[in-house]
Every structure is written in C-alpha cells, then in structure tokens.
Amino acid sequence: MALPTRNEASGDELYQPLAEINVTPLVDVMLVLLIVFMVTAPLLAAGVKVDLPRASAAAPLDPKAPIVVTVGKDGKLSLGTEEISPDRLVEAVEARLGEDRTRVVRLRGDKDAAYGDVVAVMDRLATHGVTHIAIVTGPKNRDKAPEGAAEAAP
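The chain above was modelled as a monomer; its predicted structure follows.
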C-alpha cells in the first residue's frame, strides 16, 4: 500500500500522516509477559524444597476434634453438643484432654451472655490446670449496621 506524498488535487507537497497505531507488537509483548508470569507464579508459591531429617522419637500429629465449651445467653454450659452442669465441666474437659495439657480449649460465649458467666468458666478451667484457652469470635460484618443503630440516630 503506497502512501500519497502529495496532495494531487491542490499540488501541495505535504505529508499525510498515518493516524493509525499498530497494536500487534503490544499484544505480542503482553502475551509473552502473561506466559512468563503464569510459569513463574506456581514456582514462587511452592516454597523451598528441603529434605527433612529423620528422628526415631518423632510422633505423627494427631488431628483431634477440638474441645469446645459454649456459654449460652441464659448461662447454660455445653461441652461440644451436649449440655453439662458447671460442676461436671472440669472433669469432662480433663477427660477429653487426657494427658495432652497443651491442647487448646475453645470457649464460645454468646454475645448476649453475661460477661461474668464467661469469665467464671475461664477461671474454673484455669484453676484446675487447663491454661490453653482460646475465645472464639465471629467475623466482623462491616456491611451490617449494629442493632438499634437506626433507633439511636437522631
């Protein structure tokens, strides 16, 4: 395709610029970059491969079910799915722990439960040697306004 170098109608000797961008080289470069990142990303995520040493005293990790103590809003206690009295709580937790005192006991307290009830359960467990206690919370929902927020607004 030949480009006209002059305007034949008027006789001017002006160049007519080509007002079109050739994007084919840009697409080629982008595809090469995409392939490079697709190849290198899995290699970076895999981490460093090491040959671990062997030990005769090593024991496999035991994925046990978690020990969950729940304090309801009415103050009732549950160990797992079964309701339990406060007097039997420590015995039942110690029975589930066995000899492994490093296992974590997860304490779930209802948001409407009395703060004193939750602290009493923690204190009861801690005084009997169960010191690995984690308090379970739910995710913070930023989209939902707190209850009563519309009523409190002027």
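The chain is about 35% helix and 15% strand.
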